[in-house]
Amino acid sequence: MAGTETAAARYTGTRVHRVEDPRLLQGRGTFVDDISRPGMLHACFVRSPFARARIRGVDATAALAVPGVRAVFTAADLNPGVHEQWYTSMGKDVPDTPRPPLADGEARFAGDPVALVVATDRYVAEDAVDLVDVDYEPLPPVVDYVAGRGAEPLVHEAYAGNVAGALGGPVSDDLAGAFESAAYDVRATIHQQAYAPVPIETRGMVADWSGEELTVWAATQAPHEVRMFLARLLGIAEHQVRVIMRDTGGGFGQKVMPMREDMCVALAATKLPAAVKWIEDRRENLMSAGMARHEHGDARMGFDDEGRIVAAYIDHVQDIGAYPTPWPVGTAAAVGMLFPGPYRVPKAGFLTTSVFSNTSGRAAYRGPWQFESLAREVLLDIAARRMGMDPIELRRRNLLRRDELPCPNPNGMPYSDITPLETFEQALAMLDYDAFRREQAAAREAGRNLGVGTCTYVEPTTSAMPYYGTEGATIRIEPSGKINVYVAGGSTGNSLETAVVQLTADALGVEIADVRTIQGDTAVTPFGAGTGGSRSGSMLAGAVTETAALLRERIVAIAAQRLEASPDDIELAESHARVRGTPTAAVSLAEIADIAYFKPHKLPVGIPAGLEASARYQARPPVIWANATHVCTCEVNAVTGAVTLLRYIVGEDCGPMINPNVVEGQIAGGTVQGIGGVLYEHLVYDDDGNPLTTTFMDYLLPTATEVPLIEYGHVETPAPGPGGFKGVGEGGAIGAPPAVVNAIADALAPFGVEITRLPLTPAAIVELLDPQR
Fold this sequence. Notes:
Largest sheet: 7 strands, mixed
Distance between the termini: 76 Å
Radius of gyration: 28 Å
Strand order of the largest sheet: 3-5-1-12-9-10-11
Number of strands: 28
Structural class: alpha+beta
Helix content: 25-40%
Strand content: 15-25%
Oligomer: single chain
C-alpha cells in the first residue's frame, strides 16, 4: 500500500558514528575471555613438536598428579564421541577432508593437538601440559607441497599423491587453438607465500554443559553455524545448543567455522561438571589456527597484435596443510572461475589442485580466491613489458565497461552492475598518472627508483546460494516506542550493528537513537549464515526491509484510524506518523505502540495486537558483484631493498554506501592486510616442518608507520538487491597485493627483473637485483 512508504532516508548513506564504539572505546565490550562461570575450568592443549610422528602412547600420570588438574583427554577419550561434522556452508553432500578433534595415531603438523589438559586455572593447565609424556616416533614429513604432490610419504593414507582433489579443465572450445594463433603468448609462474589472518583477538570458547543443554560463548563470525556444527558433533538436537557471541576482535575468515580445538572443548565440557574455557595464545594462533595464500599458478594469456586478450588459462596449485577448513577443493575453484577478471576474455580454462602437507591446515582468509587477481594482474604487467606497452594502456584496451553488461565471463560467471573501466579511470585521475610518469622519469635521472602499480578486479559478494542467500530479522517495537532489531550477527569489527540501526531507522522512519540491535545469541535471533563472503550489508538490508514492511503496514493502519485519515496519506518520519501535507496532524510511535499493546480494542479490524514481526529475505540475483581499482606508488632503495609506499588510491564500486565511514574502514583494513602479505607477513617452516614465525618478533605486520594515507574514490552502481547495496569486506585484501607487487616491479623495471615470487622482503629484492650477492 502506498501509505507504507517512509520519508526520504535520513541515515543510510551518511557518516553516522558507529553505535558499538562507545562500549569498545571504554573497555566495556564483552569478549570470550571476559566470560566467567561458577567453578569454571581452563583448558590447554598438548601439541606435537614434530611435523609428522607416530604417537605410540600418552602417559598423563604426572600431569594428573598436579593439584588442580581435573582431567587429561586424549583421542581415545574424545574422538569416539564425534558424530557427523559437515559444515552448513559447504552442504551435507560435499566431500570433506579428515578432521579429528585430537591427533589419533599420528601427529601431522607441528602444533597438532594431541591431548587436552583441564585444570582449575590456566596457569596450572599450562604447567601440567609439560608433564604429559607423549611417546613420539618421528617420521619424515611433507613440508614442501610442490615436492609432495604425487609423491610419498602420504600425509593421509586415503589420499594418493597427497592430492585432496582437483577441479577444472578447458572451459572454452578450441582454447589451444586460440593460444596457437595469438600474436603474443605470455606465461609466468606466480608464487605466493603462506600467511595468516592474525586477528587481534585469538580464538576462544567457553562451553557449559547442563546435562541437557550446551551453552557456548564463542569468538565467531557465524554463531548459528557453530550451533549447528556442535549439535551434529555431539549428536544432540539443535535446540539443545545455545551459542552466544558478544564482541569478537576480528575474524577475517578464520572464525567462520569451528575448528578442531573448538570440537575438543565442546566434547570435554560434556564430560566435566563445570564449564570449560579455552583461550588461544598468540603462539598457538600462528602455529595451528590455519594458514592461507600458500599457492602458485602457471598463468598464461594470449594477445592479438593490438594487445587484446584472446585467451587465458591458469593451472593453480594450493597448499592445504594437514587439516584444512572447510573443504578446500570447492573454494579453490573460485580462483579458476574468476581468473579472467573484469576483462574481455573470449576463451578461458583452468585447473586447480589442492595438495596436503605436514603444516598448519589451510583456513578461510579475507578474499580466499585472492590469488586469481594476483596471478592475472602481475601477468598483465609482465605481458605489457614484454610487448613494449604501458601496463595502463594494455588494461584500457581490455577492461569491460558498464555499457557492455550484463555478460558472462568465459567460465560462465554472470557479470552485471560493475564498472571496471570507470573505476580504473577514476583512480588514475586521482593519481594524475601522466604527472607521476614525469615525476618518475625525473627521479630516475636522479638515481631514485619510483614505480606505480595497479590492480583491477571484480569480486562476488552476496549470492543466491541456498545457505548464504537467505537472512532473517525480527523487529520489536516496544510499548515505549523504542525499537529492538534481532539479527543473526557475526559482527567482528565490520559494524553490522551500526548498519542494522541505520537501515531500520530509515525503514521505519524513526530517530536513530530509538533503535538498538541484538545480535549473536542463537536463542533469540533468527537463523543466519553470519559474516562471510562480503554478504552482510546486502543481506541484512534485505532482511530489515522485508520485516519493516510488515510493521509499517500495521503502524500506518493504526495511525490512519487514530488521525481519521486515509492510509495512503500517512507518512512515517522522526518516530511519528503524520498526515502528508498537514504536519500538525501526527501521532508518535509511542502512542501507536500504546494502542497496539494496551488498547487492542481500539485496533483497526484485521490488525493484530502488538508490534513485532519476523521475516526472511531471499536473494534473487545469482551473484551481486563489486569491483575496484587499486593504484600504488612506491620508491625502492636498490642498495638496501627497502620499499617505501608513497601513495595508495582505491577507486571502489560497492554500490550505494550504507555508511561511508564503515565502507572506507573496510577497504583500509583489507588493503593493509594485502600490503602486509606482500612486504612483511610470512609463515615460515624449516625443512623439518618446524614453524619459525610463532611470535610477533618473527611474524611481521604492517603498522601505521609503513602504510600511507589511503585515498578513496567511489563509483556507485546499484546492485539488483535491496537498496542496491553490494559487499565491500574483502576487496582491499584482494586488490592490494598485485598493486604493490606491480609498483615494485615498475620501480625495478630498468634493472630488467621480473617479480614472480612473494614476499618482497628487502633481502628478496636485493637478491633479485644481484643474485650473486
